[in-house]
Design brief:
Number of domains: 1
Radius of gyration: 17 Å
Helix content: 10-25%
Number of helices: 4
């Protein structure tokens, strides 16, 4: 039997946590998020923990591969990596570093996504963007959330 239990970090993801202001955003936050107010949460304190056998961590890993296509890494400006030192996104797990993974909410204020009206801010949450630090770069992946209304029995 396959264990489908979430790790403690994934179990702590909530609408409230995703929509809170970030106290101390990392220095690279503005490169990916412009001038927007830093909102989100730390998912894992150490990106190396993303390798654990958790179904949501696996979805985050898959989103990193899906959303980064055929690029070579590291790709950040100012990186001193030569073309021989660059690697494919499929190998990103070998380049994870001991730094936090951040999650930022994906929101759409014009359309409803969650039927739960009793949870503040939930109705416009569409998912989250994961920011995963690797040697010389930060990779992003998008996880979309979906919920159906609970139908009466």
């Amino acid at each position: 039997m396959i264990d489908m239990a979430l790790c403690s970090a994934c179990s702590s993801i909530s609408v409230e946590a995703l929509t809170e202001d970030l106290e101390n955003p990392p220095s690279w936050w503005g490169l990916f998020n412009g001038l927007s107010k830093p909102r989100g949460m730390v998912h894992l304190q150490n990106a190396l923990q993303l390798k654990q056998p958790c179904p949501l961590c696996a979805i985050i890993r898959a989103s990193i591969v899906q959303y980064n296509g055929d690029e070579k890494f590291p790709r950040r400006k100012g990186s001193s990596a030569s073309s021989q030192e660059q690697w494919d996104v499929a190998d990103f797990e070998a380049h994870l570093i001991d730094a936090p993974i951040y999650l930022r909410p994906k929101q759409d204020f014009l359309r409803r996504s969650f039927p739960e009206e009793s949870v503040p801010s939930a109705w416009h949450l569409r998912g989250f963007t994961a920011f995963v630090p690797v040697k010389g770069d930060v990779l992003t992946g998008v996880v979309r959330l979906f919920a159906q209304p609970v139908l009466p029995l």
